[in-house]
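Subgroup meeting minutes
Present: P.N., E.W., G.H.
Scribe: E.W.

1. P.N. recapped why we're keeping a running log of single-chain structure predictions: easier to compare across weeks, and new members can see raw inputs and outputs side by side.
2. G.H. added today's entry (258 aa).
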Amino acid sequence: MQTTSLLSSFTKALAGFAALFFLSLSSPLPAAITPAQIGYHGEVRWVSVEDLPLPLAQFTTVFWDPRDTPSLRKLIRLTDAVRGKRVLEIGTGTGLLAACALQAGATHAVATDINPSAVLNARFNGTLLGLANRLEVRQVTLAQPDAYAIIRPEERFDVIISNPPWVNRLPQSIDEFALYDASFRLMRTLLDGLPQHLPPGGRALLAYGCVDAIKTLRSECAKRGYTFRVVDDDRDLDKLPEEFLPGMLLEVTLPDRR
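Output recorded in log:
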């Protein structure tokens, strides 16, 4: 077990060195960029997904579980869902989904998070991948944690994506904001702001892996007159455990008011 652990640690460290090495070969950005240069001095774990050409850094307290979003990332990767479009990611963590969107041809992405380490993390990964000129990462405050608190009233996005917190519980620490959404406040404010921030034909693509959250989302969409759709997933909610993986991809669209 100890030998396996050492090999695993070595492999992750090697992935990190490889990321920086290949950046130096393929990008005009400074090859010597390090987390410390953007103000982060904690531990770094290196993680990978098939959607991106290089490993990503994961900073301490920043959420990472790609099992939440395989359907969403596949849609981004294999279709024109975000190509040529302006994207907002709510709750970016490492910057994974925003990076996937930009990698797939989105013109610009705004990514938000309440965790200061996540904001630094997403900026670092955007720079590492050579996406920084199209990625804007914004800090949400604890005093104003609603979905669009740092989005200007006039800003509109073609696609809004999110792997939001799933469980109706009060967060007790900064990292738990990625897991818990008390009274589903983030969900409700996300839905409330769609008419202001989505143009006609726009859509929200959300990844949830919690039965209570999905049923609440469906109910809240119905109250607002929105269209709720499960995308390419025939699992029966009533037969799933309360929390499950992989996450389920859900699409929300607005009524045609023409």
